[in-house]
Write a structure and sequence with these properties.
Layout: H1 2-13, E1 18-29, E2 32-44, E3 50-54, H2 61-68, E4 76-81, E5 84-85, H3 108-151, E6 152-155, H4 167-177, H5 183-192, H6 208-221, E7 226-230, H7 238-255, E8 258-262, E9 274-279, E10 282-288, H8 299-317, H9 331-335, H10 340-345
Parallel strand pairs: 3-8, 3-9, 6-7, 7-8
Antiparallel strand pairs: 1-2, 1-4, 4-5, 9-10
The structure holds adenosine-5'-diphosphate (ADP) and magnesium ion.
Magnesium ion is lined by residues 61-62.
């Protein structure tokens, strides 16, 4: 009895941070269905600090990050975060318009009144159920946004800073939207990315690399448990990329934030505790990364290695010129209310 209870407790404590089961994400356009994700089973533990996600263009990397951040919902399968189901939202309703076959141009005026009347009748009949559906959807989107505010930091290629806010205000806005205003922590993050003393500057008074570091600070300032990066170093030269990754991952290790970073850069796997490869919406391989080999060694060795890593991070912090952004979602989301995040960042592009 007591044993079973203990076991349940232990299981609760070891709930994976992320658990995807049979996740598929289907997109249908022009009558054709594409499986952007095609049966993903994935568990990430909290100790897995840095997970690199590689794969060719179109393999589903961005879709996977969007599902993890609840900006998108699986079509099938389940997503649990610390053992709890993550809220999902239905796709927006398709609007199909009634129209008659195109007659001779001279006859068109005869057809218009018919089309208009049929559309009006359709709209009147459908209005109540559409209103209900869109209310349900709005509520679901809000639940997703709330999940995201509490748990997710996001780092993009663009910096997405607000030009009329200072460095500190940019960082604190992200905290405010997450409901976790904490000036001391914001200042701490700003100095950790090497921008000590620059908190009162406006983005236009900083170099591109410095702006990107503000974005890193912003993504980490709200104490998210999961940091997602979609090719955050995609715009950087290789030296700068290494420096930025050192800063970003050094902080993640120290704060025990799990980071899932999409990259095309094989050399970055040296920073990874785990390396995932996607192809055609499926996980092709799932390996321990170079940084993951620390796990098997003795604690002392591990501590040494981590201390050295911290030293390296400290040394490179100052000259970092880098590219990243985080915190919330898009610049649009930052300018508006937090509710906008879901809509602003919802994938509606086509490649
Ligand atoms: P990656 O980030 O690895 O380049 P994506 O996740 O962006 O890949 O896309 C995976 C596949 O899903 C691609 O074939 C892409 O065209 C398709 N896809 C992604 N988003 C949408 C969408 N909103 N509508 C239709 N197809 C999409
Ligand atoms: Mg992508």
């Amino acid at each position: 009895m007591g044993g079973a209870w203990l076991q349940t407790m232990a299981e609760n404590f070891t709930s994976p941070l992320i658990e995807l089961r049979g996740v598929r994400r289907l997109y249908t356009s022009a009558g054709e269905t594409v499986a952007a994700l095609d049966g993903i089973d994935l568990e990430l533990k909290q100790g897995e600090v840095v997970v690199m996600l590689l794969g060719p263009s179109g393999s589903g990397k961005t879709t996977l990050l969007n599902v993890l951040s609840a900006m998108d919902s699986p079509t099938e399968g389940t997503y649990r975060f610390l053992g709890e189901g993550v809220p999902t939202a239905p796709d927006a309703l398709e609007t199909t318009r009634f129209s008659l076959p195109m007659p001779h141009p001279l006859l068109q005026p005869l057809v218009w009144p018919i089309e208009v009347s049929v559309r009006l009748i359709q709209a009147t009949i459908r209005a109540p159920s559409r209103t209900m559906a869109s209310r349900r959807r709005a509520k679901a989107l809000e639940a997703q946004a709330s999940f995201r505010r509490r748990n997710i930091g996001y780092v993009f290629q663009q910096y997405n800073l607000l030009g009329d806010l200072t460095v500190l205000e940019n960082v604190m806005l992200a905290q405010e939207i997450a409901g976790a205003r904490d000036r001391t922590h914001a200042m701490d993050m700003i100095s950790r990315v090497g921008l000590e003393g620059l908190h009162d500057r406006f983005p236009s008074e900083l170099s591109g690399g410095q702006q990107q570091r503000v974005a890193i600070a912003r993504s980490l300032a709200k104490k998210a448990q999961l940091l997602l990066g979609d090719e955050p170093t995609g715009n950087l030269d290789s030296e700068t990329t290494q420096q930025v990754m050192d800063v970003l991952l050094g902080i993640c290790r120290k704060e025990q934030v799990t980071a899932v970073i999409v990259t095309h850069d094989e050399s970055l796997t040296q920073h990874a505790t785990r390396v995932l490869r996607l192809d055609s919406g499926r996980l092709q391989s799932d390996e321990r990364g170079a940084a993951g080999t620390l796990v098997g060694k003795s604690k002392a060795v591990m501590k040494d290695a981590l201390d050295t890593a911290e030293d390296v991070v400290d040394t490179v912090r100052r000259p970092v010129e880098a590219a990243i952004h985080g915190g919330l979602a898009t610049a649009k989301a930052l300018t508006g209310v937090a509710k906008d995040i879901a809509e602003a960042a919802r994938p509606n592009r086509k490649e």
